[in-house]
Amino acid sequence: MSSPDPNPAVADGGASAAPRQANPGPSPWEDAVLAAALMAVDPAGTGGVSLRALAGPVRDQWLSIMRDLQPEGTPMRRVPLHVSDGRLLGGLDLAATLNAGRPVAERGLLVEADGGVIELAMAERIAAGTAARLTMAFDSGEVVLERDGLAMRTPSRFAVVALDEGVGEDEGLLNALLDRLGFHLELTYIRVHEAIACDYDADDILAARARLRSVTITEDRIQALCGTAMALGIPSLRASIFACRVACASAALEDRPEVTDEDLSVAARLVLAPRATQLPPMEPPPDAEPPPPEPEEPDQEQNQSNEQQEPQELEDQVLEAAKAAIPAGLLAQLQMGKLRRSRSRATGKAGAVQNAPSRGRPAGVLRGEPRAGLRLNVVETLRAAAPWQRLRREERARVGQPSTRIEVRQDDFRITRFKHKSETTTIFVVDASGSSALHRLAEAKGAVELLLADCYVRRDKVALVAFRGKAAEILLPPTRSLVRAKRTLAGLPGGGGTPLASGIDLGMILSDSVKRRGGTPVLIVMTDGRANVARDGTGGRTRAGEEALAAARVVRSLEIAALVIDTSPRPQPQGRDLATEMGAVYLPLPHADANSLSQAVRATAI
Length: 606
Description:
Layout: H1 8-11, H2 28-41, H3 43-46, E1 48-52, H4 57-69, E2 76-79, H5 85-89, E3 90-92, H6 94-100, E4 105-107, H7 109-112, E5 117-120, H8 128-140, E6 142-147, E7 150-155, E8 159-164, H9 175-178, E9 183-186, H10 202-212, H11 219-231, H12 237-253, H13 261-272, H14 298-325, H15 328-336, E10 353-356, E11 361-367, H16 378-385, H17 389-398, E12 414-421, E13 424-431, H18 437-458, E14 461-468, E15 471-479, H19 482-490, H20 500-516, E16 520-527, H21 541-557, E17 561-566, H22 573-582, E18 585-588, H23 594-603
Parallel strand pairs: 1-8, 1-9, 2-5, 5-8, 13-14, 13-16, 16-17, 17-18
Antiparallel strand pairs: 3-4, 6-7, 10-12, 11-12, 14-15
Helix pairs in contact: 2-4, 2-10, 2-12, 10-12, 11-12, 11-13, 11-14, 12-13, 13-14, 18-19, 18-23, 20-21, 21-22
């Protein structure tokens, strides 16, 4: 196979990196192919694969290898992004039910994939409800169906291949789904010529499955994997369980009756390393004196040393294997404390999801009448009426009105629910006081203009509130007009005291009005947090600071998404305290320009 990329910065997406070790180990593509083989050996035990890569020849090659490794007859099902509950879990077969006159169930995709693999398309955009149903079946090993007059439990054990096409750190799988997948693969930086064939075939997988039940793993090796997970800061216990299952699958694939150190290294490299959130504790320097040991009996000390020496050495070996699999650039980011990988979704960019009667994306059905603009869902209405046709025909026959038509009653009516993302209004609350106000206002002006450039695409709005002297005022009402914003910002004044409480109050009132109109407000407070003017216009830092913190608590009680940008040359505790009371993200930017400020607003919590 081809050697790994000699340039670590390219392989790590451009991050600065230290030189790699002399023996870099398997290439990322070799590990990706090995993960596909191990998942085929133990599909349900390893959970599946999170495959982060854009559509292209590299991803297609991996998917082709994964499918070829599955034994003949293995069910493979592809789940589309907006799959319905009936197709996913199963439900009433409408045509068969109407013909038979009794409820007839149809199998869903999860039941059809029992013992096989599910490919989840565009997994980074999957709805939370669909992910919840998927994880419920994944945890219980069965699909529980209680709807449309049906009550049944069907076995369903499968592996998931989640195709993650997210760009950057803002898009990614939901934590609930990501935590249940043993392998987290990144194919973005693998070149096409590196994606070559696999050394395993379906016969090797069948033989390994037959040997898997007899593979054993000792307690010391389990302890080594768990200790490695703790050292890497992995909070979930599923990671250690997956690592044990992967180690057993590796031993079965290599025809070993017992898990060896090599299998532990494979598990640490493929399962634990991609989940690392911190570096292991640094070893003390050689010249540092160790702390004096507690006095113990000689025999007891010797026995304890003999018992702990071998497990500790094994854990160190596994930890070194995991550290070697972490990209060098990632290690540097971890050391500097700059890694902030968040798999949760940020909904502020496009607004909060809200229910709507007649527009937006379909989001299920509910019982009701098609009035006031509500849309009747004909298929679901027939599905609700189908199980009762036999009884209704018998009722008509008893009163002398036999009929073979489908009878739909008022209780059968189903209307379609819709959801849409509301409009986001970003409200800047800018401190326009003091001698440096002109510099901060220039930053705010540039940031507002840069954010307005995106409003035409996202249909968002921007507003500006400035506070100085003894009060605050709305300088720019919510708008998406770039011309109006520039005209208003051109004559923005500055100087005077810092009525911080008044500025927060006015921003909160404006945010509340946006919420009442069905929008999603985002409050951006640019200040150094040093209030010196109270609400009534009188001076006094103590009273002004208390009123500012009280106003911040009101913002938190209204659950308004907020960001506090500390603009002081040397950030002080006042800004952080204000963000804490407001429940906002705190971002110190003492020397930010308009471009970095707008990027921070987009990237931080909104």
